[in-house]
Amino acid sequence: MSKEEPVLTVQAHIFQIDPETRKSWKPVSTRALPVQFYYNIDTNVYRIISVDGTKAIINHPIRPGMVFSKTSQKFGQWTDKASSTVFGLGFSVETDLLSFKDKFETATRSQPVEPSRAGSGNAVEEVQTVLKSASISSGGGDNVKQEHREPDELRYENERLKQALATSGTNAKKWEHELQTLKATNLKLKSALKESAVNVEDWRRQLTAWKESCGRLEARVKELEAQEQRRDSAASVKSNQELTSLRRELETSRQSNNDLQKTVGKLKEEKAEILEQRNASNAELEELRIYKSRIVAWKSEFGTHIRDLQLLSGRLPPD
Question: What is the mean pLDDT of the chain?
Answer without folding.
Answer: 79
